[in-house]
Amino acid sequence: MKKFVTIKDIAKKAGVSINTVSRALNNKPDINPETKKKVLEIAKELGYIRDLSALSLKNGVTRTIGVVFEDSSNPFYAEVFKGVEHQARKYGYQVILMNTERDYIREIQAVETLIEKRVDGIIISPTQFDKKDIEHLINLNYPFVVLGVHFENSQFDEIYSDDLKGGYLATRHLLERGKQKILMINAYMYKSVAKMRYLGYKRALEESGLQPYFMVEIEEGYESCFNKILELKNMSYDAVFCFNDVFAIAALKALKALNKRVPQDVAVVGYDDISYASFVNPSLTTVRIDKYKEGMIAFDLLHERLTEKRTEPAQIVLDVELIERESS
Amino acid sequence: MKKFVTIKDIAKKAGVSINTVSRALNNKPDINPETKKKVLEIAKELGYIRDLSALSLKNGVTRTIGVVFEDSSNPFYAEVFKGVEHQARKYGYQVILMNTERDYIREIQAVETLIEKRVDGIIISPTQFDKKDIEHLINLNYPFVVLGVHFENSQFDEIYSDDLKGGYLATRHLLERGKQKILMINAYMYKSVAKMRYLGYKRALEESGLQPYFMVEIEEGYESCFNKILELKNMSYDAVFCFNDVFAIAALKALKALNKRVPQDVAVVGYDDISYASFVNPSLTTVRIDKYKEGMIAFDLLHERLTEKRTEPAQIVLDVELIERESS
DNA sequence: TTGTATGCGTTATCAC
DNA sequence: GTGATAACGCATACAA
């Protein structure tokens, strides 16, 4: 690769010092307009492109944030990412995205790399399998925001949705539809989201004088849920409340394979309201989270930290909303 | 934010020079094992984390590549991205993702920023609205790979799918199903992909002694296609070949709204085979591209450049495959 | 208004 | 085996 033009090259060609070049490039006041014009012209002519690595080193600031997500191919995170990006652009920040594929080891590595890159801050959706990486960030006093989950007694910034309410709304809705044997397909409960959604499910049932019917924790992903439904084919249930829409879409497919009618035989409710939830047939009843907003707020929280507008931990809980469609 | 520990800090505490610290940290041979051990211990104790900005500046290498995609929330790109990431991880590279939202201005900015960051190379899916940014990369002799599209007479690395074949397969399939009035909902034809898919459509029709029935170019995105189908509600057609699956899924929804039966009244074929293509109901007949592979190869092409294993431009054309499902 | 010198964190070249 | 020192590209305090 060709070597890049540096301010030194410009200085030489313009017959001035690098200092003057720097002044011209950065719109500093104390410079002769003529000199400035000349320098700028030469810079353009030579095709100068500043080196952000050098700037980072100099300034101790990268104007870059890191985002660590479980799975950016899940439309939920894709949408959140766009929200983050939107705000980042607005404030002139770059975003580095790292996927963990829900692998805690990868999560640790991702955080480590981002620190090595000295990103100004990090937005992370942790697996919650463990939290060494989070503790590391705390010890370093590194600015970060946890997205999507909640740690008990956390003293750092978090944004997540009201999952208890979501689980509650979904389940109550199914009860109102006359369903009683409500199966819940959940993610692993070490994740706060999974736990809260379960508690919402439980609460709604108990309010109706019922006990949780059956809850099963499985690995996340379409296949995983599809297989589970097939596996439970001899179980009797009249509704399924799924941890998220990816699960729910898998459930729809699996139920179809089992010749169950949705919602007559089995009603299905998902969570997240990804766009595909309304595209499937029957369209999916689900709990909506404003994903874009979640991403935007996550960035804003981080930005407040970076600019030290706020030093106290903030915990934002996003409201959720039940979206009734054909599957229930 | 706390200041980071530097090799200088380690040196001071260990009572050695920074040079020695560097040697210990980088596993250099010419160092006393005892010294090394001691230095490493102190480094750990102090919580040393190397500064990649400084390394970049020193080495002129970032071990980072940039990826510029039209829309990473389209599952097509999400999947490609995973392929890129997979290979990048394998070779120890980081990946920066930038979305352009199909905005050419943003595309230019994205490329500019990546160059400023001195990423080692770039993988880009250009809008093809114009190609100033591509030319810039060429002029700089910057390593890059174009993904998903093809520029005529290009002298740089490209990976794209056999879109002519794809368009042909899709259309011939519809003809074989007895459809004759095949509407094509296309993206803008300044994109080579859109153009080639159209040419495939045309060829298949001409082979059957037919002329292209009707092709319309629209902006990409679900809404755009949904609205177009509604708009064309008085048109007579018995099949729709869509530029991609997002379009096709929108078409399914719109046709349902128009009370058309799929595939009896109108058959639908998409393109890409995103996972949701099989989740919708009726499931979608589509042209499959191996997206993960496309991403992996894109990285490999770039990596060959970076390591100078290859200097000649490579043009990889991925084969495609028709996946027959319920919508046709 | 402009230039010189220093330092950001690191590695590499060269003495010792 | 170890330590000074320069260099990477840039911004800036200070000197001129």
TrEMBL record, chains A, B:
Q: Which InterPro entries match?
A: HTH_LacI, Lambda_DNA-bd_dom_sf, Peripla_BP/Lac1_sug-bd_dom, Peripla_BP_I
SMART domains registered for this protein in UniProt: HTH_LACI
Domain (HTH lacI-type) spans 5-59
Pfam families for this protein = LacI (PF00356), Peripla_BP_1 (PF00532)
Q: Name one GO molecular function term.
A: DNA-binding transcription factor activity
Say which domain of life the source belongs to.
Answer: Bacteria
Q: Which UniProt keywords apply?
A: DNA-binding, Transcription, Transcription regulation
> What PANTHER family does UniProt report for this protein, alphabetically?
LACI-RELATED TRANSCRIPTIONAL REPRESSOR, TRANSCRIPTION REGULATOR, MEMBER OF GALR FAMILY
Name this polypeptide is given: Periplasmic binding protein/LacI transcriptional regulator
